[in-house]
Amino acid sequence: MNQLIIAIAALMLMVSGSAFAAPLWNELSDAQQQKLQPLSNSWDDMSETRRENILTGLNRWESLDNNAKQRTKQQFERYQSLSNEDREELRQQFNRFQNMDEDRKTKLRDLYKEFKNKSEDERASLKKQYDENRNSNNRNRNNSSDTNDNSGRSPSQQPSKGDNDNNSKQNEQSGDGGKSKK
């Protein structure tokens, strides 16, 4: 359970700020030491910023009601089940959001609230459309990188090494040094 709390506190770091100096292990309260026990051996070796962030996350965790804690645990478990590729995409989305101006962030939050207020069927339909667009964009991106190689030919159209060897042999046999056209 303590490891789950620490992991969730670490996830909460991404959005937390720091407003106090982080104490060393022996300066933590008994309750903090108990909750952070898995970090006891490495706590003093962590940067002050990391210790501050962990304590901030722990304080935020403790301030949540039971329903919010349950939702956070479910979100963490869902995050843990993501592939490394999906986690990286989620981190990139988070960073893009953090770098947006406040007006754009507000607009996206409002759109998200609208989405959450839709029926389950409407949300499922929108998610399906999103996934289809995302998959289509990924296919287009992959196809454009395939066609950029070797004069726009797809991999199935690329000459194999054997084809090049055969062409060289045919050119040598024609006696014109490969200048003849087929």
Description:
There is one protein chain. This protein is mainly α. The protein folds into two domains: 1-83, no CATH class; 100-146. It has eight helices and no strands. Helix 1 (2-12) packs across helix 3.
Task: Describe the global form.
Answer: elongated
- Major sheet: size, sense and barrel closure? none
Number of DSSP strands? 0
How big a fraction of the residues is strand?
under 5%
Helix % is 55-70%
Mean pLDDT equals 78
- The total tally of domains equals 2
Poorly predicted sequence stretches spanning 5 or more consecutive residues = 14-19, 150-182
Secondary structure category? mainly alpha
Termini separation: 74 Å
Whole-number radius of gyration? Answer: 28 Å
Instruction: Give helix and strand order, one letter per element, not per position.
Output: HHHHHHHH
The number of helical segments is 8
